Amino acid sequence: MRTDYKDIKGSVFGYLTVISIASDKPVKWICRCECGNLTIVRGNILRTGKSKSCGCKTGEMISKGQTTHGMSKSDEYSIWIGMKGRCYNKGNSGYKDYGERGISVCSRWLDKDNGFENFIIDMGLRPDSNYSIERINNDKGYTPDNCRWETQFSQSRNHRRNHWLELNGERMVLTDWAHKIGITPSALQSRLKNMPRERALTMEANRDKKRYIEAGGKRLTLIEWADELGLSKSQIQRRLKEYPAEIALGFGFREISAPGEKSVNQLTLDGEFVAEFKSLSEAGRQTGIDFRSISAVLNGKQKTTKGYKWEYKCKT
């Protein structure tokens, strides 16, 4: 939390008296208006005199029966209401995990007249919408010394139903152990069912599951070879079934055409023969034209590419 701001607690700006800091990014202050309302104002707004009241002095009087803190539509107010509901409303969906377990709210935050104001003074505003209230000790209630604003990610590790695992003095939830060794939580759960805990928590994942193929001094995956040669994965796989890698991947003594590959002819725009290629990939390599563009012409998706027509040799 920032400490380089000027503490103005107790200062009076117009009809507003500063009670305490609300947040430091940007600096905001909790103020009490002379009419009794509690409001939160940015420090620079107070200092420049742009805000001198809660709004009551400009005709925004709060009608009788409404809350007097002026924050009934704020996220903090909703959190305060939800906190009390979980602890005391038996019809609340969270009552079973809170009120029924004996979790309560401190009397300071339940005060009939100033409960919410005390809550804001003790907790301040939540940093942003990713934060919500967390109890540090899940077996204790909502009190100033047992509560803090935390992200959902952090709270998920403080949940009483979390599966905690300890090994060699290191204690983490199952999700964090899985992240550490590079596997999914479900994979770790499977490990724990089928092997001793020490092995399950120390055996790193097989990170290199890709199949690498070496040829011509290069070591690439199947997909990388397909991109290199301008072929599809299935074409590469068919070649590898029929020929050694050095030949299948174009580094042998002869050009091959794997099963399913057809010879293609290159033609001028007038239909005159230019050249014959044993495969689509060879045509792409020899002419420098993207094989996908050639394929589009061969399959009737476009008429020409790079100033040429293309057809399969078998075409009549």
Report a brief summary of the structure.
By secondary structure, the chain is of the alpha+beta class.
* Oligomeric composition of the shown chains: single chain
Pattern of helices and strands = EEEEHHHHEEHEEHHHEEHHHEEHHE
Largest sheet report: 4 strands, antiparallel
Based on DSSP secondary structure assignment, what is the total number of beta strands?
13
Query: Rough shape?
Result: elongated
Structural class: alpha+beta
Number of domains: 5
How many angstroms separate the termini? Answer: 79 Å
Beta content comes to 15-25%
- Average predicted confidence as pLDDT: 79
For the largest beta sheet, what order do the strands appear in spatially? 1-2-3-4
| Cα Rg | 35 Å
Please explain how this structure is put together.
By secondary structure, the protein is an alpha+beta fold. The chain has 13 helices and 13 strands. It has helices at 43-47, 75-88, 107-110, 115-123, 152-156, 174-181, 185-194, 197-202, 222-229, 233-242, 245-248, 280-287, 291-298; strands at residues 12-13, 16-24, 27-33, 38-42, 131-135, 147-151, 164-167, 170-173, 212-215, 218-221, 264-267, 273-277, 309-312. A 4-stranded antiparallel sheet has the order 1-2-3-4. Strands 12-11-13 form a 3-stranded antiparallel sheet. A two-stranded antiparallel sheet has the order 5-6. A hairpin with a 2-residue loop joins strand 9 (212-215) and strand 10. Helix 6 (174-181) crosses helix 7 (185-194) and helix 9 (222-229) crosses helix 10 (233-242). The longest helix is centred in the first third of the chain and has 14 residues, at 75-88. The termini are far apart.
